[in-house]
Specification:
Layout lengths: L1 H13 L4 H12 L3 H41 L8 H50 L2 H5 L3 H43 L1 H7 L2 H39 L1 H6 L3 H27 L1 H25 L5 H42 L21 E8 L8 E8 L4 E5 L6 H8 L7 E6 L2 E2 L5 H5 L2 E4 L8 E2 H6 L7 H10 L3 H6 L7 E2 L8 H15 L3 E5 L7 H15 L3 E5 L11 E6 L2 E6 L1 H7 L2 H19 L1
Parallel strand pairs: 3-10, 3-11, 6-9, 9-10
Antiparallel strand pairs: 1-2, 1-4, 4-5, 7-8, 11-12
Length: about 600
């Protein structure tokens, strides 16, 4: 386990963030709000001009007081403290402070609006992108990792932009304005003070180059941590049932420890920047204080200007310290951006086709012609699958677990594309159809039900959003779930909670079947749809499904062979290929693989009856 985790960490460390790529991608989302952002940054410009003027104006007060005090000490005739001049300088200083405060307020309003609108668009783009990604993308990634990109990474980017954009831009402007003001006071002292800059840049570069990889690892490990948590709590009942609580805790502890280690290393390395820059600043101030005193004694520099100059050194230190303090957030944001835009640039499914399909004219004839398929190019699961399902026929798919029954239906739905051969509906290759048009022909009922938080009526209406209330009720009656709904306090307006655990598994299955009925599809796929209901309910469901399948092509994946005796065509699948096909009677007469499957189930049933 330790070796595997180390290999994973090594691979994560090798991933490099492309800063230019991230910024160019971000700008496409910022562009619609560039006017608001521009106004916000202009007000930052105004605020920093006033900020750069403040030390000089403050120094004028010190200089005036020093001159007045010197005149009074020397006994100069008429010497006094010029309060009128001091009040004028203080008034100017107050105006500068007021302008700076108003500018910062306007900046906060427009910058926040622009950033949050940008984050809104990024979240919307991610959601849209996820709908267009192929199923294969999610086969290779943990759900929690994708969820972490949509939530944690976007939040990381949002917080970084909100807290760092203004401060970084302000730091750059402060640096420029302060250098100008320092040169105005004393060029020689300015040259001495500028030693702080290359030293600070070297310090920052040294630590940033080593900490960026650590921040990349931190974001990647965070995604892994979310994936682990999602998986553990998704199977919470099974963890308890099999007494695997300790294993689950140990697994979480392993990921959590790696997350803690990665975060500590990243934060520690980035936090070293500020203390070293402060050390350089203190040494510079000491040198300037000594040199400046000689200029003051020589009469070439006023006390107020020396005071202002030292303040300016702190103002240089301030942007450098801010950037160093924000380096952790900046690096985290680039790691988050890399994951976000990497997802947004993933290859999408081709949605558009070359043949226009009129749903109303589709009859539902399905043909597999020498289909070949494998999840990996070098591992072919299906070598030569051919069969024809005619309009209105019920086609049953049987075979051992993992034989490829569900995969066959996934190919029909174009969740995956065939490697060879073709699949046609009414003679049209499904690869020539729009995916939306193709999937509008199907209703799919899976063994694993999916319901969302909302009313029962809305969950059924998900099959056809514009359906009337009476159509929803008819679909529920067809699925034999209407009586159950009526027993609830609010009927079709009864709420299903977020986990959908306030109704039984069998009732969930019936609701998903009602949803499929409401869609009124040309082709119906039932993947172990009756596995979660009891025998009595299964009989009622079978009767209802006979009505639903009337006139429609239906594919039924079933382990209970007793439920598909009346199928028009039974496909027996083993190791990805069809080994037998025919009706129930004809397949039994062949005394082949199907007969063995059927007899094994029949024998098991007889044994259970004998025991009871």
């Amino acid at each position: 386990m330790a070796e595997m985790n180390q290999n994973k960490n090594d691979s994560l460390n090798k991933k490099k963030v492309n800063w230019k790529f991230c910024l160019s991608q971000l700008m496409t989302f910022v562009k619609p709000y560039r006017l608001k952002l521009g106004l916000a940054l202009f007000m930052v410009f105004v605020a920093n001009i006033t900020f750069a003027l403040n030390p000089t104006v403050e120094g004028m007060i010190t200089t005036q007081l020093a001159e007045d005090a010197e005149a009074i000490i020397k006994g100069t005739e008429g010497a006094y403290v010029h309060f009128n001049i001091l009040f004028q300088i203080m008034a100017v200083l107050g105006i500068l402070y007021l302008i700076k405060t108003i500018s910062q307020l306007i900046t906060a309003i427009f910058l926040t609006d622009a950033i949050q609108q940008t984050m809104h668009d990024i979240r919307a783009a991610l959601q849209k992108k996820i709908q267009l990604l192929p199923v294969r993308y999610f086969d290779d990634r943990a759900f929690g990792d994708v969820l972490s990109t949509v939530t944690n990474d976007v939040d990381t980017l949002s917080n970084a932009l909100q807290q760092t954009l203004q401060r970084v831009f302000s730091a750059v402007l402060t640096f420029i304005f302060v250098i100008i003001m320092m040169l105005r006071i004393n060029p020689l002292m300015t040259v001495i003070a500028l030693i702080i800059i290359p030293l600070s840049l070297l310090i920052t570069r040294f630590f940033v180059s080593r900490s960026q990889k650590l921040f990349d690892l931190q974001q990647q490990t965070l995604g892994e941590l979310n994936g682990t948590i999602t998986e553990m709590y998704g199977g919470f009942n099974e963890v308890i049932l099999y007494n695997k609580q300790e294993d689950a805790v140990n697994r979480f502890k392993d990921v959590n420890n790696r997350m803690c280690g990665a975060s500590f290393k990243a934060q520690f390395m980035s936090s070293m920047i500020s203390p070293f820059i402060s050390l350089v600043t203190y040494l510079t101030i000491g040198i300037i204080a000594v040199v400046g005193c000689f200029f003051v004694i020589g009469g070439t520099l006023t006390v107020g200007n020396l005071q202002a100059f030292i303040r300016y050194i702190w103002q240089i230190n301030d942007p450098l310290s801010q950037i160093s303090q924000l380096s952790a957030q900046v690096q985290s944001s680039f790691s988050a951006m890399h994951r976000i835009f990497e997802l947004l640039n993933e290859e999408e499914e081709v949605q558009k086709g070359t043949v226009a399909v009129d749903k109303e004219k589709i009859k539902g004839n399905v043909t597999f012609e020498h289909v070949q398929f494998g999840y990996e190019d070098d591992k072919i699961l299906m070598k030569d699958v051919s069969f024809t399902a005619k309009q209105g026929q019920m086609v049953a798919l049987v075979g051992p677990t993992g034989a490829g029954k569900t995969t066959l239906m996934n190919l029909l739905l174009r969740f995956y594309d065939v490697k060879g051969g073709s699949i046609k509906i009414d003679g049209i290759d499904i690869r020539d159809m729009d995916r939306e048009d193709l999937r509008s022909l199907f209703s799919l009922v899976l063994q694993d039900t999916w319901l969302f938080s909302g009313t029962i009526g809305d969950n059924i209406r998900y099959g056809r959003l514009n359906a009337r209330k009476d159509e929803v009720v008819d679909a529920a009656k067809m699925a034999n779930v209407h009586h159950f709904i009526q027993t609830l306090g609010h009927g079709y307006d009864s709420m299903i909670n977020e986990e959908a655990n306030n109704i039984s598994q069998g009732e969930k299955q019936l609701l998903t079947i009602a949803r499929a009925v409401l869609k009124d599809p040309q082709i119906l796929i039932l993947d172990e749809a009756t596995s979660s209901v009891d025998t009595r309910l299964e009989k009622m469901l079978q009767d209802a499904m006979q009505k639903v399948m009337q006139g429609r092509t239906s594919f039924v994946i079933a382990h209970r062979l007793s439920t598909i005796r009346n199928a028009d065509l039974i496909l027996v699948i083993e190791n990805g290929d069809i080994v037998e096909q025919g009706t129930h009677e004809s397949l039994l007469a062949k005394k082949g693989f199907y007969e063995k499957l059927y007899n094994s189930q029949f024998a098991s049933k007889q044994e259970k009856n004998a025991v009871s």
